Every structure is written in C-alpha cells, then in structure tokens.
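Support case: S-adenosyl-1,8-diamino-3-thiooctane complex. Customer-provided input:
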Amino acid sequence: MESKLALWVKEQQTDNLALSCRVSKVLHREKTPFQDMAVVDTLQYGRMLVLDNIIQTTVGDEFVYHEMITHVALNTHPSPKRVLVIGGGDGGAVREIVKHTSIEKVVHCEIDGAVIEVAKKYLPEISCALDNPKVEIIIDDGIKHVRENKKTYDVIVVDSPDPIGPAEGLFSAGFYEDLAAALKDDGIFVAQTESPFINRDLIPRLYRDIAGIFPITRLFLANVPTYPGGLWSFTMGSKKYDPLGVDREKIPELKTRYYSPAIHQACFVLPPFVQELLK
Ligand code: AAT
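Agent response - structure generated as follows:
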C-alpha cells in the first residue's frame, strides 16, 4: 500500500515566507557542537543537507551555487594557485576549484568537522574532491584562519551560512579587512551575499564595506531555487583584476552545467532593482 504519510522539511525563510520540500527518507540526524544537522532525501530536489533548519545544499540545484561561487573568481585571476575556502563543508566549492589545472593547493577551513564527515558519507557527488591530494582540510573558525595568514592566497571563497548568530562575523567589515590581508597583492575574494529580494538592507551594507577596501567590487547573480527568493547574489572584491575585463575567448573549457564564458559576462548584468541597492 502506498504510504499516505507526508514528511516535509520546512525552512522558515522570513517571518512571512517558508519553503517546504516533501521528504521521502531521513538519512541522518545529529546535534553537533555547532549546529543541528540533518540529511534527507527530498522528492523535488534530491538529497539535501539542512543545518539549523536552513537548507544548505541539494543535489538538484547545488551545481548553480558551487559553480558560480568559484569559477567567476578563479577565471578572473590569470593563474590561481593557492585557494582558501571558508565554510562549505559539503565540499561542492572544493570540487569545482580542483577542476582548474593551475591549482596547486586548496585549503578548506570549515568550523564543523561533522558536516564534512556527513557530506563524505551521504553526499558523494558533492564531496567527491575532499580526498584530492591538493586539498588540505582545517577544522577551525575561518575568521581566525584569515587573521593568522597574511599574503597567502590568490583567491578566497567564502561559502558561508546566512548571517545569523555566529556566522555574522563572516559578513563584517573587519572580516573583509582580514581577507584583504590574507590575499596576495593581486588576490580576489568572493562571498555568497544572500537574496536581493529579501536581504535588501544587508546587500548594500556589504557592498559598501567591500568597496571601501577593494579597488574593484562587483556583484553578480544566479538562480538557486532552494535559497530564499530563488535569485541569489555573490559579491567579489578584487585588488587588481576586473571580472568584466576577462577575455571570453581565453576562459578555459570546464565541465560545468550553469557557468559558461557567456554566463561569466551575463551574470554581472543587473536588473534595475538590484542596481538600485548598490547606489
Ligand atoms: N555549499 C553551500 C553550503 C553552505 S554551508 C556553510 C558552512 O559554513 C557550514 O558547513 C558551516 O558549518 C560553516 N561555517 C559556519 N561558520 C563558519 C566559520 N566561522 N568558519 C568556517 N566555517 C563556518 C552555505 C549555505 C548557504 C545558505 C543560504 N541560505
């Protein structure tokens, strides 16, 4: 008999908005020292990682986010060798970064080792590069790691949770100063910067803070259906190279499903309601 039981994961995105996904199976539940973690199979988007009731990633749409948080910045730098990922315990950003042949080392600094373990066990298609010999995993606070490393990285990717509670520090001007110091003289950082529909106070503040530190600051967009609002922003701070100056013909061919040389240019074209936020 077909089960009539309907289990749902519900992310309360704002006081007045929620996204629910029907669950076919609960694979893992754990209270880590940092957060409440679950891995579930959803019928719409496949396997999903949830932390503190916030959807972190799903097998169905993760490629958009992980390709865009990495390739736009990596292809702006002429030869990225040392890359730091802060957060992103699922390993999706690391998987994309090691596709670049110039890469010598990826340091992956995630605060919660339990997220990495669970990703390795239940999300193999996302975590598959975490065992790559070029990857060094450090279980530590990314804020502390950038403070302790100066002029070390070509590119830093901030794959952070939403700016709630302890993650707030990953969205502060002081942290952006530390990122600038941890980058080499021609370094670039990129961070996920939330939804232009929902985080309309946060995005202008971050953009101003980053533009006060980096000579080149650019915001770009992609569609991530399981994140609040569906339209997602990323902000890049660069010391020397402009992502808009990249010669499309010279972008290396990568096996991707969302990012492409045309998307590299198109993602910086902002609708007026987003441009308005950056004035
Ligand atoms: N790849 C998309 C997944 C994430 S997860 C964000 C990760 O950041 C989590 O694994 C969390 O444990 C880790 N994290 C939180 N704070 C820190 C910190 N201070 N240093 C290092 N890692 C940290 C992004 C989800 C975005 C959700 C959008 N709604």
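The domain at 62-278 is CATH 3.40.50.150 (Rossmann fold).

Case will auto-close in a few days if no follow-up is received.
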